[in-house]
Amino acid sequence: MILNFAHRGSLTEAPENTLPAMEMAIKHKAKAVELDVQLTKDNHLIVIHDQNLSAYTNQAKGLIKDYTLDAIKKIDIGSTFSTEYKGVTFATLDEILELIPQGVIINIEIKNSPTAYSGIEQLLVSCLQQHNRLENVLISSFDYSALEKVQKAAPNLKLGLLINRRIRKAWRFIRSSGLSISSIHPNARYTNRKLIEESHRLGYKVYPYTVNSLESYNHLLKLGVDGVFSNNPAIFSQHLAEIC
Ligand code: G3P
Ligand code: CA
What we know:
Layout: E1 5-7, H1 19-27, E2 32-39, E3 45-47, H2 69-72, H3 78-81, E4 91-92, H4 93-99, E5 105-110, H5 120-130, E6 137-141, H6 144-153, E7 158-163, H7 170-176, E8 183-186, H8 193-201, E9 205-206, H9 214-223, E10 229-230, H10 233-236
Parallel strand pairs: 1-2, 1-10, 2-5, 5-6, 6-7, 7-8, 8-9
Antiparallel strand pairs: 2-3, 3-4
The chain binds SN-glycerol-3-phosphate and calcium ion.
SN-glycerol-3-phosphate binds near residues 49, 162 and 229.
């Protein structure tokens, strides 16, 4: 089966990574969603892609790490997207986990750069344990040391390795990393047949990001990917291998 991820929820229809974006993805019958997690100043897991608030509003400035959860929850980011979403704020991971049905796979990406959040891995594992959400979750990061820490804290959690550059023989690099990963998430630009075949030979699923046109999607399916990350509901709500 092909598994497609609604990237940051349905980000073309609602502010990315928020509860409404996740609700839209579920409404489209997405079987999997992706989100990004960071830490507030007072160590709460908050679902946000950029580390700088300027990407979301001109009402607040600076970095997520310098805001408490209370302060972050006072920021209206919905209005920047559209008046329809006035009053929508960033969501905590707790809120998202309460919203998303157990049957929907959640890919949680730890956003650990440029700021590396000390202790985020253990807080994430504890949060998932509290929500009884160790199944149907996939943790990924461009920061491989964060994945190592997750692996130590919860060896049974599925891990996905994000790759944003062209790595020669990436599959060898992965094998030697010591990480017990279940999938690789390469930039779609660097995804080719060889990478897919060698990854499959080693037992890794391959989910490239971010694939928004049906043409690119169909091309990658023909190459053999196991799914993609997409902003396009016409793609992230499809789950059967219609070709190959
Ligand atoms: O996980 C795939 C994709 O989300 C990684 O890139 O920058 O959209 O978080 P980015
Ligand atoms: Ca992401």
